[in-house]
Amino acid sequence: MKARIIEISCLEVWREISNYLDQSVDPELRARMEEHLKHCNHCAAVLKGARNVVTLVGDGRSFELPAGFGQRLYAKLKSQGKAK
Amino acid sequence: MLTVPQPQVERNEAGLIERIRQGESELFYLLIQPYERSVFMAALSIVQNEADAEEVAQEAMLKAFANLKQFRSEAKFSTWLVQITINEARMRRRKDRKALYDSIDEGKKDEEGDYIPVDFADWREIPSEALEREQLKRALAKALASLADKYREVFVLRDVQRLSIAETAQILGITEASVKTRLLRARLQMRDALAPGYDGAWTNDNPQYKKVRPW
User: What is the complex's ipTM, to 2 decimals?
Assistant: First the structure.
């Protein structure tokens, strides 16, 4: 017999979206969320957007060091005998 | 012009630290070189201005040098370094802000209720190639700046620097549960901040939403 999945609300899904992305929700809750996401466009869009954010900002190109940062740091440390 | 040395590919970090402690100060740059970006981003998450963040980053590195004897070898050097940076940046922020503003900020600690994400019908994926474009980088920086301090700090350590929940909690001196709560808020707010104006894919029929994505 297939286990019955108990419905959850959008609010409950939003509360767990971040943990869901980090794969830290238990299997039972995960199944309930996935069932909900199949039928709820709003929550599916929230999940997709949040996942997209995490992917984009985790890409090393999103936030770069200011031009010359490494040079200036090296020069400063070198002037104090803390770099070769 | 000075030529910056190439980063070391294989390095014995513990050995390097030991040698610096024994007096080979000139090796310090090699030790911190791989962490330039982490230190800068950690500073930027708090002071929010590139020039200040650079200054804080430099000061934090010098402080790390001065305190290297206190570093315990069972700790992770990168975590320790970022922790010093966060402290340095917070001191700077405190100095820059009026006492009143600061105390209001403190009073709001950990009282987050539920955040209701905006109902855009859909958000078509922003391709990572788009990161080559300055426009997206600026949009990300602006969205990041729109977060309240406590959310931005967590978000930068966890999602920009990709530290674990445990490391983020340790560095900021908060519980893992707080990290998770703040991270949720930060991620949802970032999503809401980035979607409008970019998303040509809103399936909402309102014509004012029919904006064309710039890439």
Answer: 0.91
